[in-house]
């Protein structure tokens, strides 16, 4: 019998500390496998090594690169974006509380709180596995759909929560894909407006 704890608490996947705990708010980003080559990230890391605020600068450079729409941008297809949105909504209330999301052409932002009995890594793995299979079926393709890892940020306080929420909602506006968050069909702002 596996006696490892379901929720890892504070841990490292080799580079930054992460928190996997029930009830904690997490801002996540995961992207398509071809959206940001690893060699680009490694180059930026070398350039920023030892500089003040290097981690923040790296995150900003990654966000700008993602929003520029590099790679195949499979999620620019309504069919594939709908698949991802359905997967996110499917576990809401069972494994996590889904607070915000935005499906961009080559990456996805999500704000969730894990519920007891569901680890953060397992949640992301389920999303990626289900959507990769569905996308491959629809395209008649094979290979990696998603980049191997994901980025997560523990939400420290109410200000951080509001900042993360605004960032997710406004991502398509910043990327010049729409004029307001409610216009972007594949995000929580538009979804809630349609449902409410």
From TrEMBL:
It comes from Luteolibacter luteus. Pfam families: Y1_Tnp. PANTHER family: REP-ASSOCIATED TYROSINE TRANSPOSASE (PTHR36966). Residues 67-171 form the Transposase IS200-like domain. This is Transposase. GO terms for molecular function: sequence-specific DNA binding; transposase activity. GO terms for biological process: DNA transposition. Gene3D superfamilies: Transposase IS200-like.
